[in-house]
Here is the input.
Amino acid sequence: MKTVIIGTGSFAPPRVVTNDDLAEIVDTSDEWIRTRTGIVQRRISEGPGTTWMAAEAAKRALEDAGVRPEEIDIIIAATTTADYCFPSTACEVQGILGAGNAVGYDVSAACSGFIFALHTMDALIKTGTYGTGLVIGADNLSKTVDWSDRSTCVLFGDGAGAAVVKACESGDRGVICSQLGSDGSKASVLTCQARSMGNFLTESRPEPGYIAMEGQEVFKFAVKKVPECVDSLLRDAGTDIDEVKYLVLHQANYRICESIARRLKISMDKIPMNIDRYGNTSGATIPILLDELNRQGKLCRGDKVVLAGFGAGLTWGAMLVQW
Ligand code: ACO
Here is the structure.
């Protein structure tokens, strides 16, 4: 049994925030942000959060797939910025869509989340447990950054992406293989403390947590681990990198993607980018980019595509898909 992506969708809030807008609230500049990261603007939610974006992306993916909500068996949402600790984003989206026959739950792997969610979905589909699934990557990081910290607040944006998948018994299309990894010994490199008000035994109320990042450590980790993971994935699949049309990489920093391209000895033509328009939307970057490629008609039947992400945990993952 193969897991085939039959539809994609994405959504980002309408409000555009440029680098110049940010230069009005922190000591930064368009030039610094563009040259260090490749980001020109990002979308920021003015109110509604992760569930709203996830549901909008899901509706578009279902429409693209020609699948009705009641046909979905399972919804897996990847997010680290759910609107609530509970219910899960997946259950909320299930309610909004009216996907009454589905089971829904979330996975947490930060910026690698969509790959982790799709890998989990693939495993469940391969075993025949479910037939039609909805995988979502959605994050609302603008609500978890410290807007007075210029070293982090300029990097992120809000958005969501989704893919509808279906079990197919025959044919070459679908997920070929995937690999995931994590290294908890490096957990402190990139963190966002959970909101906690303490309890009646706590002497003081904890401060609300914000994203804290050792930027250069994340940079070094990404440019080493992602090429290693992609190499290993392709070796397992017996696929040469020349056979791969696109590497759809997590959009954290243009320079990280350039460095990955150099290490894999491939041209940047194989690495589509949209970080200039969205910034880093964490678990949403890969499905948003995949949806853009799909809607632009850049993915043809038979094309091989690698999806690869990295993020807090530290976590990383890659997946080879035949379109
Ligand atoms: N505007 C102007 N100056 C800034 C800004 C800013 N927004 N942010 C930091 N600086 C300053 C610093 O204060 C420092 O000044 P100093 O030399 O006077 O001390 C100087 O710029 C250099 O700071 P560095 O942190 O060394 O800058 P670096 O070149 O490493 O770039 C960056 C920082 C862009 C974060 C880079 O390390 C990076 O991309 N790291 C990867 C991490 C990443 O992409 N994280 C995204 C989220 S994680 C994920 O998606 C997995």
The pocket of acetyl coenzyme *A is lined by residues 28, 32-33, 36-37, 111, 150-151, 154-155, 190, 213, 215-216, 218-219, 252-253, 280, 310-311 (CB under 6 Å). The chain has a mean pLDDT of 96. Residues 2-171 form a domain with the Peroxisomal Thiolase; Chain A, domain 1 fold (CATH 3.40.47.10). The CA atoms of residues 12 and 226 lie 26 Å apart.
